[in-house]
Design goal:
two-stranded antiparallel ribbon; mainly alpha; two-stranded antiparallel sheet
Length: about 600
Amino acid sequence: MQVIENPRSFLMDTSCGALLRELQHIWNEIGETETEKDRMLLELEKECLEVYRRKVDEASNAKARLRQSVAAKEAELAALTASLGELNLHSQTEKKLASLKEQLASVTPLLEDLRVKKEERIKQFADIKALVEKISGEISGYSQLNDAMANPMTVDEHDLSLRRLDEYQTHLRALQKEKTDRLHKVLEYVNEVHVLCGVLGLDFGKTVSEVDPSLREAGPGKSTNISNDTLDGLAQAILKLKLEKKDRVQKLKDFAASLFELWNLMDSPKEERSQFGRVISIVELSEHEITESGVLSLEMIVQTAAEVERLTKQKASRMKELVLKKRLELEEICRRAHIEPDMSTAPEKANALIDSGIVDPSELLANIEAQVVKAKEESTSRKEIMERIDKWVAACEEESWLEDYNQDENRYSAGRGAHINLKRAERARVAVNKIPGIVDNLMNKVFAWEEERNMPFLYDGVRLVAILEEYKLARQKKEEEKKRFKDQKKLQDLLLTEKEAMYGSKPSPKRSNSFNKANGLRGNGNGSMTPTTRRLSVGCATPELMTPRSHSGRQNGYFKELRRLSTAPLNFVALSKEDTISYASVYSSEQGSPPRSQI
């Protein structure tokens, strides 16, 4: 027997040797022969070998099973590691140093952990894939969604890595975002449809149900269809509603314009207009600003159309009155602007045309309205010149008042209001001094206006420049007359001085009275002599000054009335008593005496 160094083998060997020695001792006592002893020892050795061989075979089988088990677990571990994308934690070094049971003991917990991870990963993949297919079905349509829910969910177990899971999750988030965007888009479309239906007075539920029933029945536990068909259907519905809204807005604005025109023509009361306040409110609004519920309903359009038709019929019966009213408006504008109105639409002619049926009353009214617009434009362009004309006329009226005031014998009396007249006289003198400048400035403005528009500036049918030139000429004649009177006065003073030197300074009363009567002079109550009107009209009358207001009554190209500015005779009140004798009287008295000087 070979002795083994292992303590357990040494102990076994000691036990076997003791037993063998005891067996030999027994055999000696029995008296067995050596041959029999060798035979029994050989049998004993054979039996031991069979036992060892059997034990070795059993150990070899156990070893093979252990190795197979370790190999299977390592293979499963590798497959799970590859599928899950995990790192291989089972080191090759540990496999070489450790026994099979140790290897199996180290592999088993890792394998159990990976199996648990695999189940969890499969569940994650299944949940994500289910959500992906559900959302994809919602986006594509409920038909594909129902097919996907009917089929069992299959997961590819060969690739359960976190990278693959991240890809699924990224795809799911993208689909969820697309679903959210689509849902917001659907809600936005539905809200727009709701607003449009409210404005147009349409049934919202019926409108969206025609696109998809789920849009009307959406609520808890019910999902809204967000497919492309639904979005396209809503977009088409919105486009259709917008076109309908645009058409109705245009109709209502046309009706509103007609209402405005008819109301203004017939002076409709505010109570009648207030019934269509909602229609009038949309006139100034753009299409997208009209959001009031029911304002564009068919009922409102029909009601407005009926009102327009009613007023149109009423307008036809009152057309003569409307034409006459509009013509009076035209004449009033022309009167204020001193423009000659178009005589083709005069009231008598307009009535004759309407009664004869030659002209449509609406066309005649439109023609007069066009003339009103044109007259207003021309009045606006003439505004500055008309203001200057009023200023000129006002100055001329002050001049006329001043001349009347200068002829008043009691103007310096201490009567009531005398100081007010004195102040006005001062202002009038300032205004009169400005008249030449006003006229020149006015003529320059008129020339500029005519040059700009290439047409004459007419004032009551007469060219204003002609009136101004006539006025300037008349004023020049008046100034010349004043100058002539001053010269005559100087001559009177000279002749009177000579006469006093020859006949004395005081003529006899009888001769003076006869002299005054013969020459048309009369006393003015304060010791001075004033020429009579008849005498002045013959020798000293001033020319008439014509202003635009003197032409305001012009008809058929002729003046109907003439207004006199500064037409009073020259004032002799302020002259001295010796200066009151007229040049004609002195000259007649001197015919009998020889002339002493040459004029």
